[in-house]
Amino acid sequence: MALYDVPAPAKINLFLHVTGRRADGYHFLQTAFRFVDLNDYLSFVPRDDGQVRRVHSTLAGLDPEQDLVVRAARALQQATGTRKGVDISCIKHIPSGAGMGGGSSDAATTLIALNRLWSLGLSRQALMDIALPLGADVPVFVFGQAAFAQGVGEQLQAIQLPERDYVIIRPPQFISTAEIFTSKGLTRDEKPITITFFADWQERFWQAGENIPLFGKNNLESVALDLYPNLWKLKNSLHSSGFNARMTGSGSCFFVECRGSKDKRDALVRQAEIGRIGSKIHHAGSAANSDASLMEQTWVCSGLQDHPLRYWID
Predict the structure, then answer these.
(1) Is 11 a catalytic residue?
(2) Active site residue 217
(3) Residue 191 to residue 281: CA distance in whole angstroms
(4) Residue ranges of the chain with pLDDT lower than 70?
(5) Residues 92, 137, 165, 235: which is the catalytic one?
(6) Domain 3-159 has CATH 3.60.15.10
(7) Fold annotation for 165-304
(8) Per-domain residue ranges for the chain?
(9) What local confidence, expressed as pLDDT, does residue 165 receive?
(10) Active-site residue, from 11, 84, 92, 235
(11) Predicted pLDDT of residue 259
(12) What pLDDT, in 10s, does the model give residues 167-185?
C-alpha cells in the first residue's frame, strides 16, 4: 500500500531568543513553534529490495544523497534494521532558505509516514530520537503540537495558542542558517524566560484586538538585516505602513499576525495591502535602477495547533 500526498507543514517561530552557546558551537535557544497550513506534499511507494530512492522532487539542484527525506528514510532503516525500501517523491511549496522549516518538516513527515508504511510501530519519542541528528528543528514536527522549545531546540513542551491567521512574506533571498548562527554580530546572551511567563502573556492578550506587540524578539533577525540590506528596506517599509512584521527562524521570510475575523477576510485584506506596498517598492526601485525585488511572494496561512499527522503515531 502506497501513501500519496502526505502533508509536511511549514512552521513559524513566534519568537526566538538565543540564550547561550555550548562549547561544541551549538546554541541554546528559547522559541515558540507554530505550524501553519502551507504544506509540501510527499508520496511513498514501498519497495521490497531495501533501496531508498528519491524519484521526484521539485527542489532543483539538490543531490538526492544530501536530501533530508532520503537521509531520514535511511536513518529509520538503520535504527530498526528493516529490509524494506521506498520510492519517495516530493512536491515543494515551502521555500528553501526562508526560516519556515521546509526540509525539516519533509524529514519528519518521512519518518512518520514510513513508520506507518513499514509497520514499524515506533513511539513518538523513538522517532524524535531518530529525528534530532537530522536537524534541530526536525523533532518538533514529530512532536506534533505547537511547542515551547528550549535547549538546542529538542526540549519541547506543548502550548495552547489562540486562533490566528498570518500573512507570510517571502523575499527573494536564500539565507543559510549557518551563516546567521556563526555571525559575530549575533547576540547570544538573551535573558531566559519561563514557559509560564510566555503562557501568561498569551492569556493576557488572547482576545485582544489589533496592534498588540509580538512577544519577545527574534535575535537572528538583526543579523540577517545587517547582512542583507534589502531585507531591512522591506521590514522598514512594512513598519512604516503599520505592519508589525517579524522574521521567522533565520529568515528570510517575515510574518504579520492577523487578529481579526476567523474567516481570513481581514488577513486577505492585509495581504492585498502588503502586496501594494511591494508594488510601490518595486516601482521606486526600478526608477532608481536599484535592487527592486524586495518581495517575491505572499501567502495567507492559518496557524495550526496540531501537526496534520499528529495522530499517525500511536
Answers:
(1) yes
(2) no
(3) 37
(4) 58-62, 208-211, 260-263, 281-292
(5) 137
(6) no
(7) Alpha-Beta Plaits (3.30.70)
(8) 3-159, 165-304
(9) 93
(10) 11
(11) 78
(12) 999 999 999 999 999 999 9
